[in-house]
Structures are given as C-alpha cells and as structure tokens.
Recover the amino acids of this structure.
C-alpha cells in the first residue's frame, strides 16, 4: 500500500466514521454518532481521619516471689600439681597417659 494513502486514511476522521457505518450496517445496527473518548472523572477522595490504634489494657499480674537459694558449698581445693584433660577439663594425675574420666589421650 502506498504510504501516502496510509497517512490519508489515518488522518481523516471521515474515514473512521465511514468504517464504523459499514460495520454497523453489516451487523444490522443503526449508525451511532462517534464519541470522542474522554478521561473518566473520579470524585476526589474524602480526607480520612487517622485512626488511633486500640490498646488493650490488662491488669499487670503480681510478681511471683522467688525463694531464696541456699548458699553454695565452698569449692573443694584443687591440687596444683595435677594436670587437666584437654578433652573434658577434669583433673588427671601427672603421670597419666590417658584421662581416667573420658579416655582421651594426654598431650
């Protein structure tokens, strides 16, 4: 198709009206006037009041008294000449090759 014809067909409103008439005749309808599309009008939104969050108030329960703990027993003195196992941390004799508690090799 010639580009001049395309420009002519797209620029003239009469061509569009003619096409609409032919289509409506074919479908058995009477031609309706061509309405130009308009943007829909939307009513402005009413300003909304901010809603304060509702806070539920509940009674604070009374604190539960905690019983006094018994005094801890005094720590048993540890011999300073003993070694400690690198695996379990328990004291081992100086001449031990393995820990008597966990069986780990003494380094």
């Amino acid at each position: 198709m010639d580009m001049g014809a395309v420009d002519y067909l797209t620029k003239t409103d009469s061509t569009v009206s003619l096409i609409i008439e032919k289509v409506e005749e074919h479908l058995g309808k009477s031609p309706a006037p061509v309405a130009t599309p308009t943007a829909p009008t939307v009513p402005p939104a009413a300003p909304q009041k901010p809603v304060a969050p509702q806070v539920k108030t509940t009674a604070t329960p009374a604190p539960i008294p905690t019983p006094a703990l018994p005094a801890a027993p005094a720590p048993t003195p540890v011999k300073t000449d003993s070694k400690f196992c690198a695996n379990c941390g328990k004291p081992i004799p100086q001449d031990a090759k393995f820990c008597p508690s966990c069986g780990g090799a003494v380094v």
